[in-house]
Fold this protein.
Amino acid sequence: MNDQHDPTTPLGYFLPEQVPLNSTSSVYENSRRASSGQSRLFGFSGYNSGAAQFILVFDAETLPPDTAVPVMVIAAAATANFSAYFGTAGRWFNSGIILCNSSTGPTKTIGAADCFFDVQYV
């Protein structure tokens, strides 16, 4: 039996040291390219320093244009923290992981640079 195998975990394996990777804002921003190419998103958290808005998640290599439809939308209350967690199985992305804020939920309408993002992925 492999020493990295643990049948009690959902995937049956431990994550190696220093995994997942993090993509973290260093200043307030309106979007974050967490990864490019095939990736697994474990979760993200952040802080919205502005008015109530939405956090959109895209399966894309680069930030899509306004009116693009995200794969996921979460609400971000005014001057509040936001987060999403997908467990140890994570959520698969084929092209890359892009997050952005938006004044509209169903489609992208980019907002001001008023969010701090922290994204966990491999």
In short: The chain is about 0% helix and 45% strand.
